[in-house]
Design goal:
Blueprint lengths: L2 H28 L9 H30 L9 H30 L4 H29 L3
Helix pairs in contact: 1-2, 1-4, 3-4
Length: 144
């Protein structure tokens, strides 16, 4: 597995864990009441920061393990890696656009900040997930 693919897997794992933790914590904080009453922004902020730190740590540990096995090929990237990264970005951007349109619609409807923020949050998360999955598929099956 090449360096960039390992990083993609690290990001996918961190994103899935973060989304799951966020949903569980918000639902527990609601305690059966309305979700809009939850003080969501600290939970969201810590989830985002935790996801970033988790992804970095997982990537570092995984890279150290890979480096111990193959010291010469640890950080090597080529044109194929760049093309796959561009593919993942393009696929993920589509979900960012959808989330952005959802946020605009919710603002027009004067929805609660909870729903607006969570639409954007899950748009970012879905963008990362779908873009990462597209990258992993491209690594496994090729671009063509």
């Amino acid at each position: 597995m090449v360096y960039q693919e390992r990083n993609t897997w690290s990001q996918l794992i961190a994103t899935l864990v973060a989304m799951t933790v966020y949903i569980i914590v918000v639902l527990q904080a609601a305690g059966g009441g309305p979700l809009t009453d939850v003080l969501w922004w600290p939970i969201m902020l810590w989830t985002i920061l935790g996801s970033i730190v988790g992804s970095i740590l997982l990537s570092i540990v995984w890279g150290m393990i890979a480096g111990a096995r193959d010291p010469d090929g640890v950080g090597v990237a080529d044109l194929r890696d760049r093309d796959i990264a561009h593919l993942g970005s393009r696929v993920g951007q589509a979900f960012m656009v959808i989330a952005g349109l959802g946020v605009i619609a919710l603002c027009a409807l004067e929805a609660s900040w909870f729903w607006i923020a969570n639409t954007m949050f899950f748009g970012f998360a879905l963008s990362a997930l779908v873009g990462g999955i597209a990258q992993v598929i491209a690594y496994r099956r090729g671009l063509a």
